[in-house]
User: Fold this.
Amino acid sequence: MTALASGLDARVLVLNRLYGAIRVVDARRAFTLLCKQVAEIVSVENGTYVNYSLQTWAEAAEFQREFEHEQHDWIRTPRLVIAVPKIIRLLGYDRFPREQVKLNRRNIYARDGNRCQYCGKHFATKELTLDHVVPRVQGGLNTWDNLVCACVKCNARKGGRTPSEAGIRLIRPAVRPKRNPAIAMRLGSPKYQSWKAFLDEAYWTIDLSEG
Assistant:
């Protein structure tokens, strides 16, 4: 299959049979599930849910290209050009995962929005570091409330001291996010607004791991 890389890298929200959000996968995985006929596409259209098989979704591609081209990511095969669905539903799975949001570098960067938590400036990921608010030399732990994004300059200024000892302050408290921070960032994009209908507050503690 020849495909547009950005299309295959697009993220797709996965629902269980009961329309509960359980995971986020890339388009490769989503199309694999659709081809195996273990999932269907769910599209939010004018406030209602419309269900598509892979075949009927492909048949809608001509309309989507003409009227909704900018609203979708696309992949191209030798036979067709098809929009990447934003949401799919597993037809035979009705459970919910019971994991909390994972503590890892990617999620901390996403929680803090790639913003240094001392100077407040935004930086590219490669220009940021992780800082222990209470330094490890003082017993600081690897926890959500003790790890923040910091630019190289602020991290060096702080050194092995607490913020108060270094004469600086956090721009906001470091906390464990109630929802996957990477998902929260995507919800800020118009392209992923349809996810909101399924990300009910009751499920914000589910780890919607991307991968």
About this structure: The longest helix spans residues 27-35. The chain has two domains: 5-98+180-203, 105-166. Strands lie at 11-15, 21-26, 39-45, 48-52, 74-76, 81-83, 87-90, 128-132, 147-151. The CA atoms of residues 65 and 202 lie 36 Å apart.
